[in-house]
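Dear colleagues,

I hope this message finds you well. In preparation for our joint manuscript, I am sending the LysR family transcriptional regulator (Ancylobacter koreensis) sequence together with its predicted structure, so that both groups work from identical material. I would be grateful if you could confirm receipt.
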Amino acid sequence: MIERPLDLELVQAFVRVAELASFTRAAETLGTTQAAVSLRLRRLEERLGRPLLERSPRHVRLTADGAAFLERARRLLAADREARVWQAAGPARLRLGISDHTTGDTLPALLRRVAAASPEVVFEVRMGFSRTLLDAYDAGELDAVLVRREGDRRDGEEVRRDAYGWFALPGALPPKGAPLPLALLAHPCGVRATAIRALDGAGIGWREAFVGGSVSSVSAAVTAGLAVAPLAAHLAPPGSADAGPRLGLPGLPPARVVLIGRAGEPAASGALRALAAFLRAG
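The corresponding structure tokens are as follows:
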């Protein structure tokens, strides 16, 4: 009897669901529906004769067989890409602008996951302020940007909302009545402008204690006990806490994180779908 080879579309669906722990997110990255992904998984499990996933209304987990099959599945997909690479004139490229306030120290993990989903794409990443990156996108210098929504701009897809606070080490708060020492990014950072506007509107005195070139450096200033920093909660350094309520500081509005991109090569478009899905998955 001749053995039938595995259908790689079924294998690809399994890998995406395993990586994202979500049928919905996997469907987004594959450009299909949740029902289609579920059907592919059932067919793969029937073909292999064993369950690969444990499904519940709230969670998707790998079974022991699924965990054992995952690395084999990745190797199958890699072999398929290698077999087809001679057909391409060159690798697809994606010029991507990313606001530091949207990723911070989480950037390596984000790039690792997106690159794993789209290994045939060469990423050219530019970090910067949202406003600067939007200008570069509008000028055609970037294919897509991941930024905080600025002003009245309404294009793009909202992928997340980030809560903001005034983060500091609990033992390094300024004395009552003293100007608030701030760790900020330089102008034209939108978070900087929002924080200063909120403090001035509340009549709270402040001073620049540290000006950094990246969110990582601002977080380092907080960790060193030098200042209070307006940061997205998911980027706050370990050991810090939101000092806003304790110091009577005004609340900061959440930031809408948007992904704006123009249609391009299919591989690059797939990478953008994967990026959006990973961001929504948290």
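For the figure legend, we might mention the following. The chain has a mean pLDDT of 87. The chain has three domains: 8-87, 92-162+256-281, 164-253.

With kind regards,
E.M.
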